Amino acid sequence: MELLVGAHINVFTGEWTQKDAGIGTSIDSLYVEVNMDSAAIVWPLFNSLQAFWPGLQVLARDIDPAIRTHAAFFSVWKRYGFTPEGFNLAALSVQHGLKWYPLRPELIESTY
Predict the structure, then answer these.
(1) Which of 33, 68, 70, 92 is the most buried (most CB within 10 A)?
(2) In the chain, which residues have pLDDT < 70?
(3) Residue 68: which of 79, 54, 78 has the closest Cα?
(4) At the top level of its lineage, which domain of life is listed (predicted)?
């Protein structure tokens, strides 16, 4: 069972100020961002920073899920020739308004 941990907590009160959990910038529990209380998907996007996850899964000996996760990231890379900053899983398209940043080694690191 995974523990969902939100992105931000008030260190003075101990209250969660942002209950979204996921991997990528500022948070690191699941593949897409979900609510830590209900596990409902709140942000159906992945970003290029999250491509480190398959490599971490391999290190944790979680091989079959790592293969599936890596294949998902790689299929987006093959389609666009790069890993976009944001990819909408619901629409299966690059997230509008986000610019591409070419210095993202996460997918290459996971591949290695």
Answers:
(1) 33
(2) 1-4, 23-30, 32, 98-100
(3) 54
(4) Eukaryota
* Two structure tokens written together for 91: 């629409």
Question: Is 15 among the catalytic positions?
Answer: no
Domains in the chain: boundaries: 8-43, 45-111
CA atoms of 49 and 25, how far apart (whole Å): 7
Dihedral sign for Cα atoms in the order 43, 25, 32, 76: positive
80 contacts: CB under 8 Å, gap ≥ 6: 94
Q: Please give the pLDDT value at position 28.
A: 55
The one catalytic residue among 15, 33, 85, 109: 85
CA nearest to 111, candidates 64, 62, 52? 52
Sign, Cα dihedral of 5, 8, 9, 11? positive
Both structure tokens of 25: 């910038």
DSSP state of 4: P
Q: pLDDT tens digits, residue range 82-92?
A: 888 888 888 88
Which residues are CB-neighbours of 47 under 8 A, at least 6 positions away? 24, 25, 84, 85, 86, 87
